[in-house]
Amino acid sequence: MTPPKKPPPPPPEFVTVTRWDTPHSSLWKIAEEQFEDGTKWRDIYEANRDLIGDDPGKLRVGMRLRMPTTEVHPAYIRSVAGGLDEESATITAKILAAEQRLSEIGNFWGNDDVGTKFYRGADGKPGYQTVSTETETAVGAFGQFYKNVADRLRAMADRHDVTEWENTIQVLSVALKALDK
Question: In terms of pTM, does the model score above 0.70?
Answer without folding.
Answer: no
